[in-house]
Amino acid sequence: MFETAFRLGKKRFYDTKKFPRGFAKSGDFTLAEEDILTLYGETLSGLEAGTLQPENAEEQQFLKVLDNPELAASKIEKAWLKYVRLARGRKRFHTLNGRNKLDASSDDYTDTDDEPSLTEEG
Question: Whole-prediction pTM value?
Answer without folding.
Answer: 0.69
